[in-house]
Each structure stands twice: as C-alpha cells, then as structure tokens.
TrEMBL record:
UniProt function note: Synthesizes alpha-1,4-glucan chains using ADP-glucose.
EC number(s) reported in the record: 2.4.1.21
Cellular compartments per GO CC: cytosol
Gene expressing this chain: glgA
Domain Starch synthase catalytic: residue ranges: 7-243
Substrates-to-products reaction catalysed: [(1->4)-alpha-D-glucosyl](n) + ADP-alpha-D-glucose = [(1->4)-alpha-D-glucosyl](n+1) + ADP + H(+)
Entry's family note: Belongs to the glycosyltransferase 1 family. Bacterial/plant glycogen synthase subfamily.
The protein's name: Glycogen synthase
NCBIfam families: glgA, PRK00654.2-2
UniProt-listed InterPro entries: Glyco_trans_1, GS/SS, Starch_synth_cat_dom
Organism: Motilimonas pumila
Gene Ontology MF term list: alpha-1,4-glucan glucosyltransferase (ADP-glucose donor) activity; alpha-1,4-glucan glucosyltransferase (UDP-glucose donor) activity
GO terms (BP aspect): glycogen biosynthetic process
UniProt-annotated binding residues for ADP-alpha-D-glucose: K20
Length: 489
C-alpha cells in the first residue's frame, strides 16, 4: 500500500457505543476504527443527542453560531468524545437534538426531521473551520447527511478549505430516503428554491437521498448484490433511474463484522465460550437461552432465533403465517425486537397459541441478542430486502446457521446447502411467500433430525467464514482513491 494517508471526516446520524437504532451505527463505529488502524487521520461527527452515551463526560470544544438567511443565527456547541483513538465530535443543539429519541418517539417520526438534519449537514461543514480540519474525504451515510455533497458543490464550492475535498455517500438502506416538504429547508435556501425535478417529489418535496446520490463524488451500497438491485426498478425503492445516472461512480462494498464484539470464543455476554473445534459450550448456551426466556428445557428441540426491528422489511408478512404451520412440529422459536405494533400483536397472539414453543420478547436487549446468537441452532432472516445485514454474519461466527431470503447482502454472504453442500454455511429461499419459507424450514428440520453429523459439519464450516473489516477497508481506500484520483493508493 502507498504511504499516502488521508484526512477523513466520517459523518453519520448514529454511532455504536454512543447512539444506535440499527446497523448504520455498527458500520459508523467499525469502519472508522479500521481506517484508523490503516494509519489515516479519521474523525467522526454525529449529533449530540440528549441520550448519547457518555455525554456527561464529553469535552467542550467551542460554541458556534451558524448565520442563515432565513432562520437568523442558529447557536450550537461542539463537544468531543473518543472511540478508542478516534475523536468523535458531537454537534450539540438543544433545539434540534435535546430530545428523548434520535428520530422520533413512540413509532412516530419527529415532524421537523428534515430541518434537523439539514441543520446537521450545514453544521458539519461549518464546524471544520472551528476544528481547523481540512478533510480529503467526507464520508456521508444515508439521507441524514446527504445534503453535505450538495452544499459542498453550491455554497462551499469556492471555499478555500474544501477545494480538494471529495465526498462519498454510503447507502445503508435506500428504502429510507428522507422526503421532506421544502418548507423545512429554510435553513438551506439553495435547496429550498431548487427546481431540479430529479431531486423533487411532487414539486414541493425534496428527496434528501436523491440529492446525495446526484451530488456525491462516489456512491456505494453496503453489498455488491444490493448495488445491483438498486439499479433495477424492482429493488431500487423507486430510485433506479437516479442510481443508473451515477452508475459509473456507483459500486457495492460488503460490510465487515466486528469480531471483537461478536465472537463465541470471547463473548462476555454468554455463559460458556466455545469455538469451531469444541462446540460443547454452544449446548450450554442453548440451555441458558431456554431458561432465560422461559421455554421448555429440551436439548433435542432445535431453536430458531430472530433478533431485529419489527418492520415490514424484515418479512413478517411471510414469517407469521409460516410459523402458524411450522410450530406444530417439535421446535422452538424465539423472536426478540420492538417496532410495528401490528406485528407486535401478531407475535403476542402466536405466543399465546404456542406456549412452550414460541417466545416473543418485546424489547431491545444487547445481552439477549448475544445469547440468542449463541444458543439458537438457526437464525431467521426472511427479509423482503436486506442491503447487507449483520445478524447473518454474527450467526455464522456463532455456528448458528442462517435461514435467509436470497436478497442483497444475504445472498453475498450465505451459501445455500442445497445449491452447494460442500461450501454451504446456511439455507436460502427466494420467493417472498409463506409456503416457500415453510418448505425450507421443514427441509432444515428434517436435516437436523436425520443428519446430526452433517449439521455439525455445516456449523463448523459456517464458523470458518469470516468477513473482516480489515478486508472491506481496503475496498473503501480504493474508492477514496478513485474519488481523489490518487491511483497510487
């Protein structure tokens, strides 16, 4: 590798260890750490939420005033935390971020999210002067920071600090595009008065993600297969023409897995550690999981686990009717998560109907998530779409075989047993139909009962699969080099 080290500003709406609602936070922690390990000067910027972990220990850096044409003076502070050796700068605005939630409360988004994250995008660029930091790359993530590339090429196009700065936009889930009425963009008048139809919805709404995709220097999706899907009308969430317009600057890079947090050999959340050479600890974790959630302590019942947000994306309209038929067998199913109240009620009804076989934990619990990964035999991911997915990577590490729908990053990381038994590390179905999921669940159950030695082999094979950030980070370096035209990197 070249000795050319970059100054990278990594901007995201959430970062694991500080604030998290989903997989974006995991990436926003792991990728900057991987970049730092490669010798780059990387810094993170995020909103300083009321609930940010360790916020009371943050170092005050300075007060800032953002002067706007229509909103007057907007005051905020910059506070500094640390992610190991990576500095994390929090944009602290009482008006925008001193709230109980990150994006909303009680399954309802805040009505001014468009204004909140337009401000955040502005504060990102405004703050670099106060920090005296001139980034080579600003790495943006999802719609929350998608206005940064636009601002760089409009308001800041002649700013001496940013003459050589390039932007990367990572699409973690293009189903969430950030569509807001122009009335929320008074703080960003350049965009409020924009009439570029490519970025608008019904004339009076701005699509933040479209803005970012059109203006970023390079765009990536979080898996190669998801990048391919985003170029098709069926898989693009209505944005295929926008991604196609940027196809020369668009690619997919698979997420890595943070094995410091997710390894059965060292996991402090589980009652017994184990590895591929000795799986006896997994049996102890299974018994502990059954006891923890209140299921019958039967070692012969296979456990099918699932940990996720309860959203349509995760395939519950496929899963619930499939489980109605599947739970008549000698199996146990555990689902942990919060979200859609309709899905919550459906799962609670299943629990009443199949007491002793099905358990729904309506909560988010990091410790229980680890125990499910370690104690279950299989992990369910019947997603309608899945840009990358992280739980299947965790499941592989724990020898908990993933049962997935062949979409997005799930297809990139899981090898189906029936398609290639020798390389298999899980099971794939394709059609988003309950019958297709039920068929593969029964296929897996039969294999579990009749061929325990083969199951053991597949588990060990799964545990030998690794998706290291140290590999993915090289692809990101290459993407940065393309943006900067530093081909010697």
């Amino acid at each position: 590798m070249s000795n050319h080290k970059l100054k990278i500003l990594f901007v995201a709406s959430e970062v694991e260890s500080f604030a998290k609602t989903g997989g974006l936070a995991d990436v926003a922690k792991a990728l900057p750490l991987a970049l730092k390990a490669r010798g780059h000067d990387v810094r993170i910027m995020m909103p300083f939420y009321r609930t940010i972990a360790g916020g009371d220990q943050a170092e005050f850096i300075c007060n800032q005033t953002l002067n706007t044409e229509q909103c007057g003076e907007v005051n905020y502070a910059i506070r500094k935390l640390h992610l190991e050796e990576v500095p994390v700068y929090g944009v602290d605005s009482m008006h925008y971020f001193d709230r109980a939630g990150l994006y909303g409360e009680g399954n309802h988004a805040y009505g001014d999210n468009g204004e909140r994250f337009a401000f955040f995008s502005e504060a990102i660029l405004h703050s670099c002067d106060a920090l005296d930091f001139t980034p080579d790359i600003i790495h943006c993530n999802d719609w929350h920071t998608s206005l940064v590339p636009y601002l760089l090429k409009t308001r800041y196009q002649d700013h001496p600090r940013y003459r050589a700065t390039k932007t990367i936009l990572s699409c973690h889930n293009a189903a969430y595009q950030g569509i807001f009425n122009k009335s929320q963009l008074a703080i960003t008048p350049e965009l409020q008065h924009c009439n570029d139809s490519r970025m608008l919805e019904n004339f009076s709404y701005v699509n933040y993600l479209k803005v970012g995709v059109l203006y970023a220097d390079k765009v990536n999706a979080v898996s190669p297969n998801y990048a391919t899907e985003l170029l098709t009308p069926l898989g693009s969430h209505g944005m295929s023409h926008i991604f196609a317009e940027r196809s020369a600057d668009f690619e997919g890079i698979i997420n890595g897995c943070d094995y410091n947090d997710w390894s059965p050999a060292t996991d402090s959340y589980i009652p017994a550690n184990y590895d591929a050479n000795d799986l006896s600890g997994k049996d102890k974790c299974k018994a502990a999981l059954q006891q923890e959630v209140g299921l019958d302590q039967n070692p012969d019942f296979p456990i099918f686990g699932m940990v996720c947000r309860l959203t349509e994306q995760k395939g519950f309209q496929i899963l619930v009717p499939a489980l109605e038929a599947f739970l008549v067998h000698q199996v146990q199913v555990i689902i942990v998560g919060t979200g859609d109240p309709i899905v919550t009620k459906q799962l609670q009804q299943l629990e009443q109907k199949f007491a002793g076989k099905f358990k729904f934990i309506n909560a988010y619990s990091n410790s229980l998530s680890h125990l499910v990964e370690a104690g279950a035999d299989f992990f369910l991911m019947p997603s309608l779409f899945e840009p990358c997915g992280l739980n299947q990577l965790y499941s592989l590490a724990y020898g908990t075989l993933p049962i997935v729908r062949g979409v997005g990053g799930l297809k990139d990381t899981v090898n189906d047993y029936d398609e290639d038994p020798q390389r298999a590390n899980g099971f794939i179905f394709y059609e988003p139909e309950p019958t297709d999921l039920l068929n593969i669940l029964r296929r897996v159950l039969l294999l579990y009962i009749e061929q325990p030695a083969e199951m053991q082999r597949i588990k060990q094979q799964a545990m030998a699969c690794h998706f290291y950030w140290s590999d993915s980070v090289v692809d990101y370096e290459r993407l940065y080099a393309k943006a900067l035209q530093l081909y010697a990197l």
